[in-house]
């Protein structure tokens, strides 16, 4: 059985003697997860004991376990239910169990490799053993980058806590600056043994805060982020049906929540007895797995898809303040610990094999303080400069943690046990299982990056403001006539918030046969808008209704008031756009010309559009006839409504043909029209650039439309193009326009007689939100 208990790569030892230093032959085994008793050889460790040396190896296994817990366990436990919303409760729970178990095993591999090979202080040193200097430096960059980003995330979380507790007494960036100073000071403690005392307080404060929120969500009537009144869909599913991008992103979030095992290596190097690391690892990961599973299932069962962002607000404003007050210490310790981990790697990397590493010299202190101060500053810059920071965190999980927590441990194991590839059946099975784990790491890296990038692109496509100044959420009626816009003052856009908003915006709202009945549609459309802004209830918020139907002014205001929306309330009637033109006009504001099949360089003010609307058994369909002119002209528009209460047929094609011809006769001229700036101007029929349909037509109705347009425009090559639905165009473009209004208030003419607000409310200018 000796071939099972001995590493099978003899070439590694000679290379390590030359690259790292003295290495005593020390037989080891990872069979059954055990390492043979190792001699406490001072030459084997990076930090050595001796007279005049600073003794870094002072951490006991219990304190190491608490440090491990603070590295892994954080308020992110309440973000896992958001992943359940995509995967479902059962697949989500299996993901938690599977990833926690796998991350525990890879932690064992890392610790075993570290204790088997001399001088391995971090994963970068381990990568150097198997891949030389290039792999060592590349892994070191990934390691440092990952934990700088994590530290920046901790600064954001701590700033949010101070904002909630102080009710925004000062600017968020000032809070972030203050937190960074505290982080830089506390992270400058040279030893993990000293940091360990902070982690005790930090871990218990965060655990108690999370526990309070978990209990809180079970006693409130409805989740804090859910609609305040009326029925709502909890969004609880045993098994979900996500898209690939949504599923891989959810799995990546769960994986990343316990993938910080690479940060444990520097702690092991400062343990009094490094071979005790497994006790610490098992205690940490056992507790984390149980807490993640129990807490996330309870929160998902009671909140469903309505997990607030930040997560500690899921049980309401009062419990949020209580949780933040209790968890503030832990929230501050988190970036402190991550900064210390990254700084310790840089410190050892710079001073390794020099007398300054463990001597209290000027170079020693200057290097150490320089590392902590520079990395703290970088974390602050990242926190302030990246507006879509949650997406960057997700990218860090795929680009950094998947290679460090999956690919590297698999490669380390296969390096030490290369002989297993040609050994017994059991040994071959073990070898190829680790090769499969390496492939899994590649998949999580590539797939996770794709999923995150797809989410970023999707967030842009939703038209939600991604700038650092405001968050904007838009909803519209199905006919494109009315947009509901909520602008929330914020410092950072949150990906989970956007994901929830997108999910709520999928419902279509039909205005009904009579405009006087549109109030019901407005109320329904306002529910997801209100739910979205509930996540930021403490922020100044502007709620607006933009409509091209004058009849909706009063009903829009009444709908806002009945839903108890936050002041100020505003309803604006846009008399300068007719209904069929509105969607196209807004589409150009977002530069989606190619999407809707029009020239990309076209000015939206130079659009002429006429549309005829059809209804195929309740399926709304619009046909747009569009002319784009190089000169400045007034827009024109018109529409005719045709209800076809039967399936599409050749008869339907004839009806569409007739209606299109009527539209052309009414809104185009057969000869050049004098006076292009005249209000009665009509473009020449031959100048029609394109015929475009929008909506969600059936295949049969599409064929009928194709036949009709071909008969009306037999000589046009580009006779027909599909487009996205007008309601989607409206939402996308309206968000862009709302941001333009905010940034350029002088460019937007507001007619006072069209503004409705509470009598006792003084409406602030846009630039004073």
UniProtKB/TrEMBL annotation:
Stored Pfam families: Aa_trans
Protein's UniProt keywords contain Manganese: no
Key words of the record: Membrane, Transmembrane, Transmembrane helix
Entry GO CC: membrane
Topology in membrane: Multi-pass membrane protein
InterPro entries tied to this protein: AA_transpt_TM (IPR013057)
One GO molecular-function entry: L-amino acid transmembrane transporter activity
Limits of the Amino acid transporter transmembrane domain: 58-452
Location(s), subcellular: Membrane
TM region positions: 67-87, 141-162, 169-189, 195-220, 281-302, 322-341, 362-386, 392-418, 430-450
Similarity section: Belongs to the amino acid/polyamine transporter 2 family.
Protein name as catalogued: Neutral amino acid permease
């Amino acid at each position: 059985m000796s071939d099972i208990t001995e590493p099978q790569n003899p070439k590694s030892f000679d290379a390590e003697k030359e690259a790292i230093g003295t290495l005593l032959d020390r037989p080891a085994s990872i069979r059954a997860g055990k390492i043979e008793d190792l001699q406490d050889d001072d030459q084997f460790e990076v930090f050595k004991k001796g007279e005049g040396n600073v003794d870094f190896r002072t951490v006991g296994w219990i304190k190491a376990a608490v440090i491990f817990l603070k590295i892994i366990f954080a308020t992110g436990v309440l973000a896992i239910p958001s992943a359940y919303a995509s995967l479902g409760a059962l697949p989500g729970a299996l993901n938690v169990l599977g990833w926690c178990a796998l991350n525990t095993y890879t932690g064992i591999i890392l610790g075993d490799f570290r204790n088997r090979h001399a001088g391995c202080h971090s994963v970068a040193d381990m990568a150097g053993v198997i891949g030389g200097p290039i792999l060592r430096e590349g892994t070191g960059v990934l390691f440092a980058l990952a934990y700088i980003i994590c530290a920046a995330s901790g600064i954001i979380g701590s700033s949010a806590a101070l904002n909630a507790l102080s009710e925004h007494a000062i600017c968020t960036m000032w809070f972030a600056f203050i937190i960074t100073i505290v982080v830089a000071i506390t992270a400058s403690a040279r030893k993990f043994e000293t940091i360990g005392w902070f982690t005790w307080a930090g871990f218990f404060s965060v655990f108690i805060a999370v526990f309070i929120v978990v209990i809180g969500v079970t006693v409130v009537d409805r989740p804090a982020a859910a609609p305040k009144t009326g029925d709502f869909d909890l969004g609880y599913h045993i098994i979900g049906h996500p898209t690939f991008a949504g599923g891989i992103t959810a799995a990546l979030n769960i994986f990343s929540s316990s993938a910080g095992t690479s940060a444990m290596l520097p702690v092991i190097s400062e343990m009094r007895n490094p071979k005790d690391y497994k006790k610490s690892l098992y205690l940490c990961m056992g507790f984390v797995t149980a807490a993640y599973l129990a807490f996330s299932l309870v929160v998902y069962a009671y909140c469903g898809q309505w997990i607030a962002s930040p997560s500690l607000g899921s049980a309401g404003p009062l419990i949020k303040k209580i949780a933040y007050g209790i968890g503030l210490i832990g929230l501050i310790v988190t970036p402190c610990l991550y900064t210390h981990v990254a700084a310790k790697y840089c410190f050892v990397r710079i001073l390794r094999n020099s007398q300054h590493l463990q001597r209290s010299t000027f170079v020693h202190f200057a290097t150490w303080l320089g590392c902590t101060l520079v990395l703290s500053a970088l974390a602050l810059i990242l926190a302030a400069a990246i507006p879509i920071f949650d997406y960057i965190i997700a990218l860090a999980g795929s680009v950094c943690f998947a290679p460090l927590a999956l690919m590297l441990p698999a490669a380390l194991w296969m390096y030490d046990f290369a002989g297993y590839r040609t050994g017994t059946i059991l040994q071959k099975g073990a070898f190829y299982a680790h090769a499969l784990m390496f492939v899994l790491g590649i998949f999580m890296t590539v797939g996770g990056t794709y999923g995150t990038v797809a989410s970023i692109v999707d967030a842009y496509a939703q038209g939600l403001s991604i700038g650092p100044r405001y968050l904007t959420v838009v909803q519209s009626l199905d006919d494109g006539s009315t947009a509901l816009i909520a602008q929330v003052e914020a410092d950072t856009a949150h990906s989970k918030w956007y994901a929830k908003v997108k999910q709520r915006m999928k419902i279509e709202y039909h205005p009904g046969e009579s405009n006087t009945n549109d109030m019901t549609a407005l109320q329904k459309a306002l529910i997801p808008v209100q739910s979205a802004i509930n996540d930021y209830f403490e922020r100044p918020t502007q709620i607006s209704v933009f409509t091209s139907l004058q009849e909706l002014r009063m009903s829009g205001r009444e709908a806002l008031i009945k839903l108890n929306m936050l002041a100020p309330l505003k309803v604006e009637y846009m008399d300068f756009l007719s209904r069929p033109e509105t969607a196209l006009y807004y589409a150009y504001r977002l530069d989606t010309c190619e999407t809707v099949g029009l020239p990309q360089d076209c000015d939206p003010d130079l659009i002429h559009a006429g549309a005829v609307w059809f209804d195929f058994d309740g399926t709304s369909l619009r046909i747009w006839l569009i002319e784009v002119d190089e000169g400045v002209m007034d827009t024109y528009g018109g529409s005719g409504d045709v209800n076809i209460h039967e399936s599409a047929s050749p008869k339907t094609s004839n009806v569409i043909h007739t209606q299109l011809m009527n539209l052309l006769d009414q809104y185009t001229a057969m000869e050049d029209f004098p006076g292009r700036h005249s209000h009665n101007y009509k473009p020449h029929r031959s100048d029609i650039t394109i015929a475009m349909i929008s909506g969600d037509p059936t295949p049969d109705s599409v064929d009928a439309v194709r036949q009709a347009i071909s008969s009306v425009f037999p000589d046009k090559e580009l006779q027909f193009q599909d487009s996205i639905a007008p309601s989607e165009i409206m939402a996308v473009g309206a968000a862009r326009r709302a941001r333009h209004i905010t940034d350029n208030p002088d460019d937007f003419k507001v007619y006072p007689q069209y503004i409705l607000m509470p009598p006792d409310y003084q409406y602030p200018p846009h630039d004073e939100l």
